[in-house]
Task: structure prediction
Amino acid sequence: MNQINFYICGMLRLVSHIEYLLRIHDCVIVPQLGGFVLQVVPASYVEEEHLFRPMHKEVVFNSKLKHNDGLLSERYMESYGVTFQRAYRMLEEDVASIQSSLQKSVNVSLGAVGSLSVGNEGQIIFQAGDAHAFSVDSYGLPAFQMKTWNTLQLEHVSPLTVYERKNTFYIPINRRILRGVASVAAAIALFLTISTPVKEVNRSAYTASFIPTEIVTKVVNTQPTEKAPEIEVVTTPSKPANIPVVNKNVKKNVGKTAVVKEPSEVYYVIIGSMSTDQQANDFMAYNIDFKTMKNANKLFGSNHVRIYADKFTDKSTADAYLAKVRQNPQFFDAWLYTMTKK
Result:
């Protein structure tokens, strides 16, 4: 009974650390068991269901990734305050508990990551779980449906459907049409209330005359006519004198210094992890072509040395380069390591 409890505690402990690391890294390798890799699935549209799905990540299992990359060992060291050797032994015990359960044909649950089982031919079968917790970039964006125009036309009811009920005719009117007619009526009323300015007209032109104009003598207005006001025209010189010419293309120097914000996170494309510096040098000498990987270098940890192909400050650029590196069969298990600057 104590042995069973030990196995259960070991599995739960290992599963919690795998879930935590997958929220930060794209690949977590369990030594002597396999690696859990996050793959980005782009946004898609399901035509049959009229369903839009946002970009998300899926967890896949690679049984060929069995080497120790140091992530789980470092996590054990930080969580339990032990040395690297002690953390690695604890990790081996937890992995042994999972392998023992698989040998007994027990379905091993890995929480949100998924589950493991053994097939008929002895191979490990991975069933992916709910990976929404690992899709940080699209967190909170659910899938949604949108009806097509043809579907909306079929559901649309004609605004002027006349039907008879109990010798009474009802004409339902769409509210949109009613609001449109009211808006047009309000616009016409507003237009009519606004008075148009008209110049002063000659009233005598609209007065009826009883005497023919031929026999009417012209009466000379004895009153002096008003003299039209004189308009003073002020001329301006064609060229203003003593006005400095301002060059519009020259910008004033306001004396502000541009502040360059340093990136807070650096993304490393890891292609190898070694225990010593000498092993890392041998790996780089025999496996890396520096003509194609000019920025390849080493990243030193507490008890290991990681080799990276390149580093970036932009996540999307790092993901694109990671996909390119994985096309090389020699680095198919490359993964992304994120380092936060303090």
Q: What stands out?
A: DSSP finds seven helices and 15 strands in the chain. The longest helix spans residues 2-22. Residues 121 and 341 are 47 Å apart (CA to CA).
